[in-house]
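Entry 12.
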Amino acid sequence: MTDKKISIFSFTKKGGEINIRLMDILKENNISSYTLEKYLTDERMRVLTDLKEKVKKHFSDDAIIFVGATGIAIRSISGYIKDKFSDPAILVIDELGRYVIPLLSGHVGGANELAEYIGAALGATPIITTATDINGAFAVDVFAKKYDLILSSRKLAKDVSAALLDGKPVDIDSDIKDIDVSGIREKLNPSHSKCDLTVRITDKIYDENVLTLIHKDLYIGVGCKKNTDIKK
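Predicted 3D structure (tokens):
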């Protein structure tokens, strides 16, 4: 876990101790740490004044961690939430460091992965509630993130997850030589039956009812001729 922009907020003396431990655990990242002035015990910490304003400032970070009650976190982020494809990873840790709870962006934002990482370092229990994770099901959005792929349709991605959670088969294949999904294909459709949903890792064009996962290194643009007059 490196090179991420992560902000940490704590509100009590014990919470401040967890805050400091988190800074050490995540030291390979760009950390912004905040706590109340009376709990400043580390030169890396900054004084927390207006929480909502600080959260607004850091909502473009990769992750925001609250050391305290979930209610504080929810009220602080409620005005800035958009969707799971753009929101940062939001985590809550109790002030005793017993539990790590990913609240938002568990998959695409990496909150679940970060919770597992922090949990292992703190000796805390990650509280994962994402359906695909707790059922051990294939998560197409996690797969796309791992291979730096773009989802052609958020709706189809949700449909794929819902089908797998319902125990229905899904057909998946890859047109990209470097991405082998043969093992996943057997897992998602062991009986090789006809599927209502299809996933393709591809640089080709498929029907709109096929969920395509597209490499980010493919570009579409318009050409231009050297020395052409701007008015033309």
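Annotation: The chain has a mean pLDDT of 93. Helices lie at 13-25, 51-58, 70-77, 111-122, 131-134, 140-146, 154-165, 182-188.
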